[in-house]
What we know:
Layout: H1 18-28, H2 32-43, H3 52-63, H4 65-81
Amino acid sequence: MSKIITTFESKIYLELTEGEAMALDAICGYGPEKFKEWFYNNLGKHYLSPYEKHLDTLFDKARKLEAAIKQFDEARKALRDITV
């Protein structure tokens, strides 16, 4: 007998300003373990614990913002260095 397995995956695409990207990068700078420790000690486990496994992947994605932020800085420097 054959089995049919159906899965459903949804994705959300989020647009950030440079400042928002920098803020998210700063929040994620210490890593998910330090974030969870602070969150649980200060705000409790009720809201975040169901999503713990997703927090690690979220932090991995957010840490990639560092490269984009560096590109912003380099572009800004290049524009300042242009002499007319």
